[in-house]
# Entry
Amino acid sequence: MVIGIDANEANFSQRVGVGQYAFNILGELYQQDLTNQYYIFLKNPPQKDFPKTRDNWHYLVFGPQKLWTKIALPFYLYIRSPKLDLFYSFNHYSPLFSPFPTIPTIHDIGYLQDPSQFTKKDFYQLKNWTENSLKKSVQIVAVSQFTKDELIKTYQINPSKISLVYNGVNNSSKASPKNYQQVLNKFKITLPYFLAVGTLKPNKNYPFLINTFAEFLKSNPNYQLVIGGKKGWLYSDIAKLVTELNLNSQIIFTDYLSENEKNCLYQNAISLVIPSTYEGFGIPAIESQQFGTPVIASSIPPLQEVLKDSALYIDPFNPKTLLEALKQVLNPKIRQNLILKGRQQAQKFTWTNSAKSLIKIFSKI
# Structure
């Protein structure tokens, strides 16, 4: 079988979200599949840490970069591409037109819940390009049962057309005490800390977390809150809130975290806190559990699907529930129970399993 893949989402030095998903599965496909032929389509030369070219693994780099998915890619597929059995995309956007069967990956459709958090241009692209990809696809990959159910409900898609491929986590080893201390020093972390990971954007519900943490500090002053993630369009408002609460020394924004930095923070946090109002999966929850770090999570369907009974759940609109969870997770018995269940749950999600599921989908097509 000859498989084409749009791997642009993975082709960055700093990878978050979909980029992380794309890079890890790309590497696993390379490791696991020596039989099928892969052509990796890119608009820029591959990053240095991409898999090396070999007999069944090829890179096709071309432009123009502007409107690449809409113009350059379809043109290439029709005029210059080797004959493919299917074309797979790590994101919502399949090529606008394709002579070959297409498979997009849908991570979530949260943009339909709150269009106001996007510019008109971005929302139009998300909504309409996704609809086009879904209509023309031969199969669809969803990263959770929640996302699959949302697609069925919203677009009236036949369930058999949607395949489930869960996200995974990297099997990371613990950092040395010296390495860990370097990370603490870099971000000026001097106290036991709670951790939140994810780009600063509305669905992450960070104002809710910050206001509740301020309340927690009134009776538990010797703690910090570390928020690790790129500074999205909500950052200025959040930073202003922290200043108004006079908590600049106790609430720390790291901006983008390298894998090493993120792992160091996971393994020594009191708890990861995910107060999101919407998620498609919630990779940080499983990443932290792998290191034996308890999780406090919103009681929303995708997080409950992924975490089962291995987390403390909160109502993301009720500060009292989060305040109580922040206190509960300090209890040694509760912590130990969460650590044990969390490690067991994390073992279920690996990029190896994700890639195996994807290869099965390819073979069925």
In short: The two ends are 10 Å apart (CA to CA).
